[in-house]
Every structure is written in C-alpha cells, then in structure tokens.
Amino acid sequence: IPLDHLADLVDELPPGLQPPQLLPSVVILGRPNVGKSTLFNKLIGRRQAIVGDEPGITRDRHYGVVEWLGRNFELVDTGGIVPDDEAIIPVNIFRQASFAIEGATLLLWVVDAREGVTPLDEELVRHLRATGKPVFIVANKVESESVRAAAGEFYRFGFDTLFPVSAEHGTGTAELLDAILDFTQAPVAAPPPPERIRVAVIGRPNVGKSSLINAILGEERVIVSPIAGTTRDAIDTDLVHNGRAFTLIDTAGIRRKGRTTAMAEKFSVIMARKALERADVAVLLLDAVEGPTHLDEVIAGYALESGTSILLALNKWDTIEKDANTAKLYERQLRERVKFLDYAPAVFISALTGQRVTRVLDLAVRAYDARYRRIPTGELNRFFTEHLATPRATMPTSTPVKVHYVTQARSVPPTFVLFTNSTKKLHFSYIRYVENRLRENFDFFATPLRIVSRPRL
Ligand code: GDP
Ligand code: GDP
C-alpha cells in the first residue's frame, strides 16, 4: 500500500517551529541493512532516500524533525552516525552514537523480519537493555502475511511493543507514528503565527493596486514605510488596523517610461508570483469597468497554486451604475472566470472614494485567522459524528468507503486526514462535501483546505 501522503504531511516545517533539542528524541538503532535509513526517510518525509546495499555508504543527514498529526519529535538515524562496517560490532554502535542514545526518549530497534533473528541481533539486545531506555521493536520488510507472522519471533526478547512495517512501502508506519506520539507526549506543533499579517495586493496593470494601497494608507496610521531592501521589486509597508499589525506588499512596482503594455502585463504576473511567496493573504484586484479578463484568470491561477488565502476585490465600483442586482450580476460574471477560487469571497470597492477599503483589511484578518486555525480534537470529533459518521449519497454505493475518524494534521494551510477502511481513494464529490462542511462549521474563510484520506484497516 503506497502511503505517499505520509511524506506530504511531514513536508516543510512550519515557520516558528520549536528547535529540535526541545523535542522528544527518538533514536533508530539496528544492525546494517535492516532498513534504518529507509525508515528514517519515510518518517521524515524525504523522498530522495539515500539507501543502498553497498556497505559504508555515507549518509550525512541523519537528524530530522517529524511532524505527525500536529505534533513533533526529533528523529535520529544512528546508521548515519556509525558506518556499516563498524556497526557489525554492536558495541561500536553504542559507543559512537552514545550521545544520541543518552538523549533519547525512546529507542526504535529496527530488525529485518524476513531474515529473522540473527546472532548480531542477539548481541545488540544486551546493549539495548543496558541503556535502560524504552524500546519499540520495528520489524521491517513485512510485505506478506507469512513474514508478518514470523516477526512475532522478536517478542522473545521481552520488549512488549512490536510494529510490523514496510519502510519501503510505508505500511504500518502510521501506527508506529501514533504509538511514538502517544508514548513521548510530544508537544503540539502549532506554529506561532507570524506577528504581522502579510497581505499582497496583486492584479494586472491599471486595476488600481497603487490607488488601493494609497487609500488604505491614507486612512491608517503608517508606522514604517517603505522597508529597506525590498524597494526594488515589491514595496512593503507596515501598518496597524484595529489593533492588528499588517505588512502590505505592493506589487505595482516602479513605473518606467516606455514600457509596453505587453511588458507591463508580464511584469504584473512576475510581481504577483514573487509577492505570493511571502504572503498570507492575497487581495486579487480586478477592474469592474473592464470586467474579468484572461490575465486576471492567469494571476488567479498563481494565487491558487501558492496556497495563500485569497480575497477578490472588484475595484472602481464608483464608476458602475447600480441597481439592486448589479453586485450579484458582477459577482456571477467574475466567478465564471475564476471558478476554481470558489472559496474566495468577493468585495466591491473603490480605491478612489475609499469605499470599503478598510473592509479589505477586516476580511484579511478573518482569512489569516482561518489559515492558522487548529480545531480542538473534541470539536472535530463532534463534527465527525454529526457529518461524517454515516455514509453519504455522495459516495458511490457500489464500493462504500467508511470513514473511521478525522483529524487535523496541520495548519497553514489547514490540512485534514480522513482515516478510512479502504485503500481506495475517497471520491472527489465526497471530499468536496467534507470540505464544505468544514468551511461552514469552523469558518475557514477565504482559505484553501487540504483533505487527504488514509487507510486505517
Ligand atoms: P540500513 O543500513 O539499516 O540503514 O538499511 P537501508 O535503509 O540502507 O536498507 C537496506 C536495504 O534494505 C536496501 O536495499 C533497502 O532498499 C532495503 N529495504 C529497506 N526497507 C525495506 C522494506 O521495507 N522492504 C524491503 N523489501 N526492502 C527494504
Ligand atoms: P495599478 O497599475 O494597478 O497600480 O493601478 P493604479 O492605482 O495606478 O490605477 C490605474 C488607474 O485607475 C488610475 O488612473 C487610477 O486613478 C484609476 N483608479 C484606481 N482606482 C480607482 C477607482 O476605485 N475608481 C476609479 N474611478 N478609478 C480608479
């Protein structure tokens, strides 16, 4: 069973994560070639594992932080510390990796279930016991029922916790991670949100980006402007609005004479992409007079790809002749163009008159808070009982997949794991159903959600 999304869940560390030395430390030990390095890479989520059968292969990166279900621990691969040709004498492992072992909260003793107990394993056990540390046995290379049964042989060493896994395929690793977290009581990994809400104002030329920034700054107290070093491309301006600190990232850039329309358009896309890398919230500005264009759609696509929270702001609303239905009509037209941004709210503004420009900041606060939101387990369990416990019509009835429970793996962007009774992927429409219920129940405003399913058989 390929569990590639395990890697997805432990990808890049969120900003502000605790330094590794404050985390529980879990140390992988075992004789050469049992799969320590493969397991390490699987748990860390590194795809390009450095593994090989040649003895003494150098592995220089053997420390890492694992995030799993919102918690962190440090993982150490002693196979990276002790060369294989020296590790065939167990005492060498314990001498050379003594620093890591002494600091360990838990030891993972990796064995090869296909080969069974070897004399080297017997010798290792004596040293493992001498550490006085808790030990989980990880019986690796379990890829068949017969090997799974054979793995039971390792129970005779008196450690009562054994996990059959296949580090290569990722089977059993979720159970192992759950047990590690239960045991170590790892701290919650909620990243402290950055102090400032970084808002990028993006859009094609002449939609009113500069005007909007100026309108906001005209209304608000400007604290610092502009920040040195960023003036060349995007201009950052710090401000405070209703007690919340913002950095506005202005992508309008320096106006140069003689720039052609085509050049300016290309430039606006490049600037948007750069700003999106640093932003929490993107305000995609559109021109109400001209209506949504292909270039708006292109920029919207990059905003979607970046994973930022997104607000759609239709500018120059002052120039539109309005009746009761005008806003609805314009919004429908806009949504036709950017169907894929259905979670982004639309707001009608005028940078010229200042109409609703501070509302943009209020919405940005709501979007930002949604982005960093963590749903407490109790609330998520109630949500599950109410909305997910019974199968829905949106599931194909021929092969109903049952969801056992749901958990939030991380924030930024909020990511949820549905544990199911099947290795089959959940149907797209069901994922949509879950997404919509999550949005309604927990105000995931203007923010993309990631929903993955994982078999828990
Ligand atoms: P280490 O020396 O203990 O770090 O072991 P490695 O991670 O370098 O793995 C040794 C060999 O076992 C490599 O050829 C891996 O591809 C293979 N291996 C590791 N894990 C598994 C597994 O779960 N199943 C199978 N079939 N082979 C594995
Ligand atoms: P940018 O290229 O996106 O930074 O756009 P600018 O802020 O330079 O605005 C382009 C043009 O649109 C200027 O002539 C502005 O005066 C005008 N403009 C911007 N916002 C508004 C608005 O809300 N209403 C009207 N009527 N004109 C606007």
TrEMBL record:
Tell me the ranges covered by the EngA-type G domain, including all copies.
24-188, 197-372
InterPro entries listed in its UniProt record: G_ENGA (IPR031166), GTP-bd (IPR006073), GTPase_Der (IPR016484), KH_dom-like (IPR032859), KH_dom-like_a/b (IPR015946), P-loop_NTPase (IPR027417), Small_GTP-bd (IPR005225)
Keywords, sorted A to Z: GTP-binding, Nucleotide-binding, Repeat, Ribosome biogenesis
Binding positions for GTP 1 per the UniProt entry:
30-37, 77-81, 140-143
The answer to keyword Repeat applying to this record is yes
What domain of life does the native source organism fall in?
Answer: Bacteria
- Pfam families per UniProt: KH_dom-like, MMR_HSR1
Q: Does the keyword Nucleotide-binding apply?
A: yes
Locate the residues binding GTP 2: 203-210, 250-254, 315-318
Described function: GTPase that plays an essential role in the late steps of ribosome biogenesis.
Family affiliation: Belongs to the TRAFAC class TrmE-Era-EngA-EngB-Septin-like GTPase superfamily. EngA (Der) GTPase family.
Assembly information from the UniProt record: Associates with the 50S ribosomal subunit.
Entry-linked PANTHER family: GTPASE DER (PTHR43834)
Name used for this protein in its record: GTPase Der
